[in-house]
Specification:
The structure is a single chain. With about 550 residues, the protein is an alpha/beta fold. The strands form 4 sheets. A 6-stranded parallel beta sheet has the order 3-2-4-5-7-6, with helices on both faces. α2 links the parallel β2 and β3. α3 packs parallel to α5 and α3 packs across α17.
Length: about 550
Amino acid sequence: MQIQVSQLIVKFLQQLGVDTIFGMPGAHILPVYDDLYDSSIKTVLVKHEQGAAFMAGGYARVSGRIGACITTAGPGASNLITGIANAYADKLPMIVITGEAPTHIFGRGGLQESSGEGGSIDQTALFSGVTRYHKLIERTDYLTNVLNQAARQLVSDVPGPVVLSIPVNVQKELVDAAILEKLPSLKPSPKLQIPAQLLEQCADMIRQAHRPVILAGYGCLQSAQARAELRRFSDHLNIPVATSLKGKGAIDERSELALGSLGVTSSGHAMHYFMEEADLIILLGAGFNERTSYVWKQGVLNPSKIIQVDRNVAQLEKVFKADLAIQSDLGDFLKSMNACCVPQGLEPKPRPDIAAFKRRIDQQNIAHNTVIFGDKFALVKTLFARLERHFDEGIVLVDDNIIFAQNLYRVKADDLFVPNTGVSSLGHAIPAAIGARFALNKPIFAILGDGGFQMCCMEIMTAVNYQIPLTIIMFNNQTLGLIRKNQHQQYQQRFLDCDFQNPDYALLAQSFGINHFKIASDADCQQVFELADFHQGINLIELMVDQDAYPNYSSRR
């Protein structure tokens, strides 16, 4: 049976399991949109194409499924770049469909042409550094191979964004519908089997250690069973667990063995344990990047022995030399270790008193004036303490601010914490949270500053249009806080282009038709949790922060 390429693309999306696609139509993508009309895929009209990419990324991040977005040619495609780059950095499966001017005008100066011909924008070059696969489809005779390559990248062990750009005339050409039947299975590749000798060697290193510690990273959240297996592993052997920022939530942070987050913007509990107590560090799916390593601080890993496990072979020994490096899915590895703990004679270690250790570090921080949040952040502390206590069920926090929740919110077993760690773009939290809510029926929070809010606030209307429950926590200090902090610490308070005037957020919320709450006192904070509908409402919570309140850390930037 012959069908249009546009219809084939829609059927391909359905075959990938796509049920929601975020985007904005334009003349050069309307054939695909017309075939979406009768499909089972829900289309979501955004306010800006960058928002579409962030929504698709948020959807993919919390669901583990393929996120999708669609735009027209030219600016429609180029506006996606930052969101695609974020998905690339976070290794999120995302398929992007863009239109293109018709092939017969390539090189002739056509409207929104981005073929790279005749001095026009080269869309392939634009996307080449932030995609796993990008193809400008100028003909249909190789379409099977293109879709094959796209599908393989989306379900690979290290997925990322795939962009298919299709000229409008090619979208209207007829092809054989059997093309889809020629595609290989879209199931993920078989898991790697872990050699028994590596498991035995790992068990032996744990047996010989006196004070092992685990650093759990993003890989523990990407694997379906890793969180439960990590909890079993830690509890059985009495091994404390720290997480990277991106891995926050890999273990319930209320656990007696939870050390909190390791990283330059954290309280220091985990860092001091690594440097003062540990003799074996087990890194599970954690990249030892700038933030986690305290800008590669000497002594954070040394002189401990190191076991590193990661599903991505490129991450193994990328920054340091490991005593044992294992490529494996984290859930498979932990399940195997739990199965062999008893046969290998792994006895529990003496249970460390992590609460007492944290108290000692807190006292040291007070004595040395290294407490990360002073009295000016009391209201922020109150907010996160209430947020932690308020929900029995799990919630999702999509966090652009990062530093507050990293230290002040203990992620529970059923929570999901989504820090903006990809390319750390302002304007990410609100659209990413909207995308996440399309995938997951849990209370969703977007956490960001007032600078980031002004970059993406119109996407609130996307939530309004589709009645998507959402709570936005916005810190109002009338400045780009990180920039002001650095100019205060390193540039003699020569403040330039960091401060700004804010609109009246109560009136802005009223114009959107959403709820507004302003927190300037503890009483205000209590009232929010008494009145706000976090399950069905759309809320903007504005929390006032002193412009001259600076977290006490340095990123050396």
